[in-house]
Amino acid sequence: MKKMILCMVFLLGFCVVAQAQCETDKLLEKVLLIQFAEEADIDAYDMSEFLSGYAQYRSTMDMLEKGLADAKTALEAAIASGDSMAISAKMNAMMSADKAVFDARQAAVSEAGSLLDAASTAKLALVVADLPAAKKALQNALLPKPACPVAPATAPAACAASTQEAPAVVVADPKEEVMAAVNEILDAVRAGDIEKVLGFVSEEFYQPQVGDKETVKDYINQGKEMGLLENVPATIAEYDAKVILEDTEVEVKDGEATVYPIDATSNQGSVTVELILKKEADGKWRITGGDAYGI
Questions:
Q1: Residue 274 falls in which region: left (phi positive, over 0), alpha (psi -120 to 50) or beta
Q2: Of 8, 167, 175, 282, whose CB neighbour count within 10 A is largest?
Q3: Would 109 be classed as within a structural domain?
């Protein structure tokens, strides 16, 4: 799970962080339930029934939670209008929607109880009572702690002017080359050109929580199967996702470049990416590692 999250976010998801976060939230919830089922020692047959029941629960809750959110919005509008009759009606509607969510949670726990002993049923009730807190705790356990920010690179000392004239030689600035590569990667992500993005991943790539390039390809294929990469441009527009490079610094040392921070924001949250690149034999800078923080 951690590998999938990191891979999708820091290799493919800078611009679609909202989608990554939305899918991550759903996946975290599934992981919580699977972990719980394993701890409760549910056998393979009952596990299938347990997960099937969860799928029905999630579908129902998605509908009920949307209804509750709509009811809250309607109540807020009524309060703003000052219409006392509308306020009363909308308040009753919101309370009814809130009760429907509560009842659905209780019914789900009771139904799952047919597969569990009393203690396990009680533990499940505690998890379901505050799923956001449980998912946050799991997320914190899965993700690494942020590294210290990369210090801005020190400008090189000015060279003394030569007393002899020499032919002008244009020398490429490594930092400009690196940022050009990063922008090209981001353009490929925005366009949903996954193959081009993969072309910027070095064969030497390795990230402890993700793996090597072949593992990255496997996760990308899984992401496609899950529908995470069906229409990247549309997802970017839907979630108003943006990449901010204003504070990005490039540090080049011993043939390796560190690019940090690459900030991505959306109407669902934000993430900060650090990339490590290396200039390879064909003259291209490619990703050899990195990390993602704040998922």
A1: beta
A2: 8
A3: yes
- The Cα–Cα gap between 262 and 63 comes to 35
Rounded distance between C-alpha atoms, residue 38 and residue 159, angstroms: 65
Task: Let me know if residue 158 belongs to a domain.
Answer: no
Are 291 and 208 spatial neighbours (Cβ–Cβ below 8 Å)?
A: no
pLDDT tens, residue by residue, 193-244: 888 888 999 999 988 777 788 888 877 777 677 666 777 787 777 777 788 8
Domain identity same for 225 and 280: yes
Q: Identify the CATH number of the domain in which residue 110 sits.
A: 1.20.120
**Hey, what are 153's tokens?**
């690179």
| 115 in the same domain as 192 | no
Residue 160 lies in a domain: no
Residue 47 phi/psi, 5° resolution? Answer: -60, -40
Number of alpha carbons in the 13 Å side-chain half-sphere of residue 47: 13
The count of structural domains within the chain is 2
The verdict on pTM exceeding 0.70 is: no
For residue 196, report the phi and psi dihedrals to the nearest 5 degrees: -65, -40
Spell out the alpha helix ranges (H) of 161-212. Answer: 174-191, 194-199
Same domain, 118 and 234: no
pLDDT in tens, 127-181: 888 887 887 777 666 544 444 444 444 444 444 444 455 555 455 689 999 999 9
d(CA 179, CA 95): 53
* Distance in angstroms (rounded) separating the CA atoms of residues 187 and 98: 43
Q: Is residue 51 domain-shared with residue 91, that is, in the same domain? A: yes
pLDDT, tens digit (0-9, with 9 covering 90-100), for 76-86: 999 999 989 99
What range does the domain containing 289 cover?
174-293
